[in-house]
Amino acid sequence: MMPDPAPTSWCTIHRDRIARNLDLALGLVPTGRRFCAVLKADAYGHGIEHVVPLVRDRGVTCIGITSNAEARAVRAAGYTGSLIRLRVATPQEAEEALPDHVEEQVSTPDMARHLRALRDAGRLRTGVHLALNVAGMSRDGLEIESSDGRDACRLILDLLGVAIRGICTHFPSNLPGQLRESADLFQAQAAWVVDAGGLDRRKVLVHAGSSLTLTSDTTIETDMYRCGAVLYGILRPDLGYRPTMDLETRVVGLQTYPRGASVGYDRTVRLTRDSRLACLSIGYENGFGRIASGAANVAIAGNLAPVLGKVSMNAIVADVTDLPQVQLGDTAVVFGGSGSAAITPEMAERQFDTIMADLYTDWGRRNARIHR
C-alpha cells in the first residue's frame, strides 16, 4: 500500500528527546567503559534511519541490532562503527550479513564451525562474541556451569580462538541482589573462558548490562553497556529521561445517543445517561489493543475522556459528554501529551497490560511516523 497522505493515526517521534536521553545515558557511563546503542526493532519503532545520525554524531562506536534488515539500514544511514547482533543467528543469516560486517554471537560448536569456515575462506573479517547463559535467560547463551557446557565451550574456543572478540550475557533481573549475583557469576565465568582459551583479556570485550543496569544503584563490572530503553525515555523519569513518541488520532464522528443505548460489539456497555460520543479513527489495527476495552482513556481538548465498549479494528469510542468544546477533526492523544491530561507511560502500561518497549515497537510499525 502507498503511504497515506492524510493518516488518521500517527506517531510523532521527538528526535530532540532521543538526543537528550542519549546524552544523559552517556553521562552515566563510567570512564573507560564503552556504550552500545541498541536500535533493534527499527529503533524501538522510531525509525533506524532517523536515530543513527544522533548516535553517530555523539561518537558512539557500537550499535546493537538483531535482524539483517536492521544491519543494512544502519550501514545505509552512514554508520561505520561496530555492529553487534544481540542474539544468535542462523548460518544463513550470518552469511548474508557479511557485507555489513556484523559481529555475530556464538554459543554452539555447530555455529562455531560455520563461522570458522567463513573465516578460513577470508569472508568473515569481524570478530565474534561468545554468548554465555550465566544461569540467566536460558534463551540462546551457552550454560557452562555443566561439564557438557564446558566441553562445548572448549570446542568453540579451539575452533575460533583469537576470533573471539567478546564474551557477553544478558541479565534476567536488575533487582539489586539478583543483579549482583549475576554480575559476579558472569565475571567468574568470563575469567574461566579467557583462561581455558588462552585469550588475551586486554583484547576481549566482556560485556553485559542494559539500560536498567546502567541506571541501577548497583555497580557492576562490564566493559560495555548495551542500552536501548533509556534512549527512548522508557524508564527513570526522575533522572530526566523523557518519552520520545506520541500516538495521536482524530475525532471523525460526533453523535448524541440516548440513555440505554449500547456501545460497541456485544453490547458490553450501555449508556447510563444521554451521551455525546466521539468516534476516533484508531483501533487494534493501529496497536490500540482490545485488552484496553473498557479500561482506557484518551486526551481530547486538554481533558481525559474514557473509552467505552470494545475496541474495533479501526475505531474506538470516547465519552465526551462533559466536553462540549470537542469538535469534529480534533486531535485525540492516545499516548503522550502534557499536563494533567497527559497519557503517561504508567497509564499506558496499565491500560494495555504490557511494557512500553512492546507498545513503542508496535505503534511505530503500525502507524504513520512524523519525525521532529
Automatic annotation (TrEMBL):
SMART domains: Ala_racemase_C (SM01005). It catalyses: L-alanine = D-alanine. PROSITE patterns: ALANINE_RACEMASE. Residues 244-372 form the Alanine racemase C-terminal domain. The modification N6-(pyridoxal phosphate)lysine is found at K40. Belongs to the alanine racemase family. This is alanine racemase.
